[in-house]
Amino acid sequence: MKKEPTLSAPTVATPVATPVLSAEGVERRYGALRPALQGIDLQVQRGEFVVLEGPGGSGKSVLLRLLAGLDTPSAGVIRIAGEDLAAVGPLARAHLRRSLGILSAAAPLLVRHSVLDNVAFAAWVADVGADEGLRRARAALELVGLDANRLGGIRCADLASGEARRVALARALVNRPALLLLDDLLEDLDAPVAAQLVAVVDQFAGAGVTVVASTRAPAHPRPDTDPGANAASAPATRIARGWPARARILRLRDGRLAA
Q1: pLDDT at 198
Q2: 132: domain CATH number?
Q3: Does the predicted model carry a pTM greater than 0.90?
Q4: How many domains does the chain have?
Q5: Hey, is 198 helix, strand or coil?
Q6: Is residue 122 a part of any domain in this protein?
Q7: DSSP string, 17-67
Q8: Is residue 11 part of a domain?
Q9: Farthest-apart Cα atoms in the chain, separation
Q10: Given a cut of 50, is residue 218 above it in pLDDT?
Q11: Is residue 71 part of a domain?
């Protein structure tokens, strides 16, 4: 008996979302020295929480500076929302940066200015009114566990290192960014404060904000090899197990993303 031909539904390609952030073949060289970064390929989707883990000198800070547009790659392409950072003009680049929240040694606090002014200044640069900028700054400081009334008038030069780290995070959050780039987020923080800040950042990720953070600590330390991992008073860089379950851990070694 002759078999009747059958028709199948046409295959429809599933649309692929444009990554919020991508790096393609990125390298960064400084003179004749060994490359700080080489062969970096990375795609980060909206709402992802990515953690770059690696020892000092592995290239984490260099990569985050490049992703933030604070430095230029020696080779390769970096895109934010599909826009090649090297191809856009100064005005477009400034507009893209308004969607970023950056915590980086390359974007230091203004140490002669007050805590409140440092955080509010980021809002004012984004054309937020003076009063609204101050309101947002106070809210951001409270979010990271700092009393705006007590610390708001203190110069950043007079802060302890952990307090300065929290002020820098408040500044990164004040404009409600679409993308957070946080270098050494847990540096100089004790474990309880680190856990609080990771929870704050995770709330932003849960609301659709894309997060790329870095840490020097192993992202999943084992208790049998890290006897201080469960001690509440241990340095936060030894308690990286507090990263949320949603986090995608990427390891950098000698300027390369480890397989």
Answers
A1: 94
A2: 3.40.50.300
A3: no
A4: 1
A5: helix
A6: yes
A7: PPPSEEEEEEEE--TTSPPSEEEEEEEE-TT-EEEEE--TTSSHHHHHHHH
A8: no
A9: 91
A10: yes
A11: yes
